[in-house]
Amino acid sequence: MDTPASAVMICCLFALVGGQPSPSKIDSVSGPDLCRIRNSQLGWTFLCGCLLGLTYATRGLTALVIPCFAVAVWRGASGLTIELRLQYLMALASGIAVSLAVFFIAWYQPHHSEIERINRYYVIELLLPGSVLRLQHNIQSCLFDYQRGAMPYLMRHSPVQFCLAAACIAWTATTISPWQNRPNSGPLVRTAERSRPVLELVAGWMAVYFIFLCCVNYGPSRYFVLFYPAMAALSAYALFETPRILSGIVDRKVALALLGSYLICLTGQALRSRLVLISARDMYVLFCGIAAALYIGSALQRVKPRPRTHRSIHSVQQPGVWIAGLLLWAIVNGYWSSDWLLHLSYRQKQADRWLAANLPAHCTLIGALAPGLCLNNRFKAVNVISSLCNDGPVVEQASPPRYIVMLDGGDWREHWWDVRYPSLVSPLRKVHEFPHLLRPFFHVSLYSVDDSRGQIRPSLYLRR
After folding, report:
1. So what's the pLDDT on residue 273?
2. How far apart are CA 173 and CA 166, in angstroms?
3. Which of 95, 299, 459, 463 could make an S-S bridge to 50, C-beta 3.0–4.6 Å?
4. Once rounded to an integer, what is the mean pLDDT over residues 181-185?
5. pTM of the entire structure?
6. Gap between the Cα atoms of 91 and 258, Å rounded
7. In the predicted model, is pLDDT for residue 314 greater than 70?
């Protein structure tokens, strides 16, 4: 449900922009026209709240970005009185409340037991780190682990957009809007002032999910769809305002050192991924070293202070700037697409065919990986996930001939089977092993449950 939720979030952004107060329009009208404009803006803000509630009903993780919309509404009405700003905020909150009330009555209440059980599993078993050491490991893995980290994944698949968006987030976080509270400002300054809350919204939108992915134990790539619209908006803004964003980051030595070091590390890691992978711990050490070097180098460099002017706000850039950016995007993404095609493998399809050719007909495959290996054959698949589904005496309830499919080897071995069915997952019962299946570090093993007569000894399920 990440893709439809992301589409609704784009509609939320559209509605928020439509409901943002425009001081130039409000100052030029009065009386009934002013009430009509204000009611229209409040209506758009209310619609934004309704859509935010719909996104939460579609995908619970979108709740993380709702505070960013509330802050954007408050910041967007900064030129109004406190009473009027509270009206816009109440319109947003009312829309969210109405939408959530409908969701609670129509869907949550009739299915609350199933929803609570699944949410409990995902939050407690999959997401929460459980200890400080685990949290530290998650942060390090998300930032630097090439195989499983979220940031290396984005650098690997969307390097240009990721770099532009990261630069825009750093610039937004480290700069205070220079055009705030400027009386008698020109139209360009007023336009920039009105767009600043939206820029802060999309920057916070993406940053919130970055922090979330750094903290949780489980962060599959489908979660990234939730912030792809924000990343696209930030990269477009950074491409349009490249000179101003670069000059702003260069003027701030800490931001330059941290951002420059991190992007250098991720780029180097991606370029040498086909040779030798650098571990996450070594990447962290390398990041700290490069960041220190960049900070010291920038501190020692003497730069003449430049006068801060506002002439370049939303000025039209030369076509060469965005043409060069688009060409760089095409070159980099063409390289990654070619690399992906040249190294494309069919190990899952081959494993599926091996099972169809070597296992008896009408057998049952049991395990969390069983559904993925039964896409192109006629075997029955029984999904087993501890604390979620079929984690009882599942083997006894399945029809023979039966086989267990599980992750095997090292830290990835599914120890639930060792606790519940230790005799069935012993090396003597191993039929076949599929190395590097799904991931380069995954090994999938196939264990036979039944003997030659299709029988198993009773009381295999060990309760703990």
Report:
1. 67
2. 11
3. 95
4. 44
5. 0.77
6. 39
7. no
Side-chain half-sphere CA neighbours of 70 within 13 A: 13
**Size (the chain), residues:** 464
pLDDT at 67: 92
Alpha-carbon separation of residue 2 from 114, 202, 233 (angstroms)? 20, 17, 18
Residue 393: count of CB within 10 angstroms of its CB: 15
How far is it between the farthest Cα atoms of the chain? 91
Contacts of 36 (CB under 8 A, 6+ apart): none
The residue-averaged pLDDT of 342-368 equals 85
Amino acid at 396: E
Hey, what are 392's tokens?
A: 């009882």
Residue 179 has pLDDT above 60, yes or no: no
pLDDT, residue 316, reads 47
Task: Name the residue type at position 185.
Answer: S
Confidence band (pLDDT; 50, 70, 90) for 309? very low
Q: Mind listing the pLDDT tens digit for each residue in 32-54? A: 777 787 888 888 899 999 999 99
Residue 188 has a pLDDT of 43
Q: What's the rounded Cα separation, in Å, for the pair 401 and 453?
A: 9
Q: How far apart are CA 257 and CA 75, in angstroms?
A: 30
Three state DSSP letters for the chain: CHHHHHHHHHHHHHHHHHCCCCHHHHHHCCCHHHHHHHHHHHHHHHHHHHHHHHHHHHCHHHHHHHHHHHHHHHHHCCCCCHHHHHHHHHHHHHHHHHHHHHHHHHHHCCCHHHHHHHHHHHHHHHHCCCCHHHHHHHHHHHHHCCCCCHHHHHHHHCHHHHHHHHHHHHHHHHCCCCCCCCCCCCHHHHHHHHHHHHHHHHHHHHHHHHHHHHHCCCCCHHHHHHHHHHHHHHHHHHHHCHHHHHHHHHCCHHHHHHHHHHHHHHHHHHHCCCCCCCCHHHHHHHHHHHHHHHHHHHHHCCCCCCCCCCCCCCCCCCHHHHHHHHHHHHHHHHHHHHHHHHCCCCHHHHHHHHHHHHCCCCCEEECCCCHHHCCCCCCEEECCECCCECCCCHHHHCCCCEEEEEEECHHHCCHHHHHHCCCCCCHHHEEEEEECCCCCCCEEEEEECCCCCCCCCCCCCCCC
